[in-house]
């Protein structure tokens, strides 16, 4: 979180005579200035093919073939395309804290991924992630342009790194697991690495961070340097990465040392790292309600409880956000104080929740 955003949120907590909606407007305007500056640097990332392919053309790599990889032309991370509070309801994608929207050209939205080139939308004939048929993709740039991406998959889980323009996934080709990396800004496959030692019978999960991908199937896990094709077997299964932290077996570890930095007291929780790895969002089912709290992993302070059962998520810029049928809010993770804007989506709560997809959230089982 930037110093300016943090200051504005703390001011909102102190100024009790100022309506929360006004504070949210100020927050939006401050963050929009940063996004406009970033958009100018992102705009030249490259052209995308005009049509959405009916099916992805995937070249099989046999066990004896050399993996096709690419050397880094620019190893530095791209600026994050911070689109603020980002979510979809039905086929409408809302971003910039629900002040802007675009229509996704398909029957349903399945999930939303953050990339340095914009919001990547996974969509299809229905909203199901498992058993839902073809998964198609479109890129929504920060200025609202919708670009079709020529990737079509089925029954695989995908991953992105908010600081890069890449979509990655693992699939089985002729009984061999392959890691595929696709640049969504140019609509070109940039790497394909065969993983012959990885079991393809189970569900394959992939986590992308920089030039590294962590691929797991069951209890097996490998670290892949996807630019040069080098692989290494791991003892632990990494399910999420944020900054220098990662999730392993319900705990947070430091990626460099492998040491555990945080372990929740309760085991019946789900965890979500902020993209920069500074904070950890914790969700827990309590009776028929869901409670949320957040932990500062760098400061190692106690967990801050968040108000209400409203679903929370992270923006691409690692700002805590919540979305409900009546309002959209940004929150200070170190205090739990939120600044909200009222928003009428023209539907009841049940309909809203059924069609809601939060940016950066995982919807595969």
- Tally of individual helices: 3
Provide the gyration radius in Å: 20 Å
Helix proportion = 10-25%
**Large-scale geometry:** globular
- For the termini, the CA-CA separation is 30 Å
Characterize the main sheet.
Answer: 4 strands, antiparallel
Number of strands: 28
Structural class: mainly beta
Strand order of the largest sheet: 3-2-1-28
Strand content: 35-45%
Query: What's the rounded overall pLDDT mean?
Result: 82
Assembly state of the chains shown: single chain
Low-confidence stretches: 1-10, 12-66
Structural commentary:
The protein is mainly β. Helices cover 12% and strands 41% of the residues. It is built from three helices and 28 strands. It has a four-stranded antiparallel sheet with strand order 3-2-1-28. Strands 4-5-6-7 form a four-stranded antiparallel sheet, with no helix packed on it. Strand 25 (320-323) and strand 26 (327-331) form a beta hairpin. The radius of gyration is 20 Å and the shape is globular. The chain starts with a helix and ends in a 7-residue tail after the last strand. The model is unreliable at 1-10 and 12-66 (pLDDT under 50).
List strands and helices in order, with pairings.
Elements: H1 3-14, H2 20-42, E1 87-89, E2 92-95, E3 100-103, E4 108-115, E5 118-124, E6 135-140, E7 146-153, E8 158-160, E9 166-173, E10 176-183, E11 188-195, E12 204-209, E13 212-217, E14 220-225, E15 230-233, E16 238-242, E17 245-248, E18 251-254, E19 260-262, E20 269-273, E21 279-286, E22 289-296, E23 304-306, E24 312-314, E25 320-323, E26 327-331, E27 338-342, H3 349-355, E28 356-358
């Amino acid at each position: 979180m930037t110093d300016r955003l943090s200051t504005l949120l703390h001011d909102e907590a102190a100024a009790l005579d100022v309506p929360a909606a006004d504070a949210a407007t100020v927050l939006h305007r401050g963050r929009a200035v940063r996004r406009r500056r970033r958009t100018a640097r992102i705009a030249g990332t490259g052209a995308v093919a005009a049509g959405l392919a009916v099916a992805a053309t995937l070249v099989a790599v046999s066990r004896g073939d050399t993996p096709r990889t690419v050397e880094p032309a620019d190893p530095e991370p791209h600026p994050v395309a911070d689109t603020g509070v980002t979510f979809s309801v039905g086929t409408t994608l809302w971003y910039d804290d629900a002040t802007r929207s675009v229509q996704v050209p398909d029957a349903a939205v399945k999930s939303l991924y953050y990339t340095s080139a914009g919001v990547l939308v996974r969509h299809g004939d229905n909203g199901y992630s498992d058993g839902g048929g073809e998964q198609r993709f479109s890129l929504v740039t920060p200025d609202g342009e919708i670009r079709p991406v020529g990737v079509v998959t089925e029954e695989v889980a995908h991953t992105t790194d908010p600081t890069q323009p890449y979509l990655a996934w693992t699939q089985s080709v002729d009984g061999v697991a392959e890691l595929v990396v696709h640049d969504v800004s140019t609509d070109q496959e940039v790497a394909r690495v065969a993983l012959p030692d990885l079991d393809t019978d189970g569900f394959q999960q992939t986590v992308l961070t920089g030039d590294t991908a962590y691929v797991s199937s069951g209890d097996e896990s490998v670290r892949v340097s996807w630019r040069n094709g080098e692989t290494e077997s791991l003892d632990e299964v990494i399910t999420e990465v944020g900054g220098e932290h990662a999730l392993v077996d319900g705990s947070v570890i430091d990626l460099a040392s492998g040491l555990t930095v945080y372990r929740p007291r309760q085991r019946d929780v789900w965890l979500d790292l902020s993209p920069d790895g500074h904070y950890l969002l914790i969700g827990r089912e309590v009776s028929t309600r869901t409670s949320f709290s957040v932990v500062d992993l760098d400061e190692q302070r106690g967990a801050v409880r968040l108000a209400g059962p409203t679903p929370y998520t992270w923006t691409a810029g690692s700002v805590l956000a919540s979305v409900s049928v009546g309002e959209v809010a940004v929150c200070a993770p170190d205090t739990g104080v939120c600044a909200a804007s009222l928003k009428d989506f023209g539907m009841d709560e049940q309909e809203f929740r059924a069609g809601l997809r939060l940016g950066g959230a995982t919807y595969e089982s």
